Sequence to fold (440 residues):
Amino acid sequence: MPDMDTLVSLCKRRGFVFQSSEIYGGIGGFWDYGPLGVELRNNIKRAWWKTVVQDRDDMVGVDATIIMNPNVWRASGHVSEFTDPLVECKTCHHRFRADFIKSDACPDCGNKTLMAPRQFNMLFRTFVGPVEDDASIAYLRPETAQGIFVNFANVQQTMRKKIPFGIAQIGKAFRNEIVTGNFIFRDREFEQMEIEYFVKPGTEDEWHARWRDERMNWWTNVLGIRAENIRVRALSKQDLAHYSRGTFEIEYNFPMGWSELEGIASRTDYDLKRHIETSGKSLEYFDDETKEKYIPYVVEPSMGVDRCMLALLFDCFHEEEVRGEKRIVLRFPKALAPIKVAVLPLARNRPEIVELAKKITAELKPQMMALYDDTASIGRLYRRQDEIGTPFCVTVDHQSALPGDEKYDGKVTVRDRDTMEQIRVPVAEVKNVLMERLVT
Fold:
């Protein structure tokens, strides 16, 4: 596994992640995703959505707004309780999370001049409408969960769902963190993938355990995270959020140590009950079969796209020596790789070779992310594609495109990223060969 600096360098050099507003010196806790980062994130989100929504009969999706009625956040407790302990150094005036400090000395200047901790609310405030006053205050959502809770009755009734069932959502969230760091691990703007799974009271423990196992299975079998780098841990009672009666955390062994990737919380009926009390609207569920009416309990698997991407980059990073040269490979699962195939002309000064390579690229694009590249020698092109995780390269040469060549065979070379095996494939069969290999 590389260190953080090595991975950050690769991400910028190859177009995965850029510092937001970099030409102006950046802004802490915000990141822009480049061409390859966008593709990787989209593939992660597709894989998650397919598993938790598309492949299931008991799950549907929503897409709620980022700005909601501020009473949503008062009801959920975020306005009053969404805080972290903040300490400030009297000498250098740097600020830190109190629970991150190991001693009574300032981590930056070393002076023992830290002020007493105070609670800092992490909600981002804004205003709705033309007048900036207390009546127009609104908040950027700190989580996507509440957009699901306030739509529970709408979804249940319109989709005629019976409990147990779940609602999934992917979307941006915003937290004004006191301290950010470890690259894209802790951000102020990030993207969540959350499920609220509604169950009958009394069955929540069973469903909590089932979702713990299902989510671990997704990380190891769908994303391919190595078993030695991932674990599940039950939080102690003192570490639980105020709404939780039990939480499992799925953690990854990053260079900075074991850190959370996903939380699976048993949220009881806390959120629905709070919205009922605050709004005065009923969010109860009526069971047609048993004629029971109750407030459902909730199990919540919640994860961040950004942390998932970071774990995947670390886990897929491999460095090896090939014929005396360093070779860096990102061994993404094929379904997650940003680019599926690169088509490379062996001689860019031969129009026939270039034309055929571009034609093959155009034919592949409707089925997969394919790119054409002729900006370096073939060896450098291979290394470049290895470093961004492209599973296959197709090389067009004299034998492929020049019928007058004595070795002409009308075939191209298909190279495998992981084994570096090269096979000759007829031009007409390239698409089918790649399609078969991409699903295995």
The chain is about 30% helix and 30% strand. The chain has two domains: 4-67+140-313, 339-438. The first helix runs from residue 4 to 13.
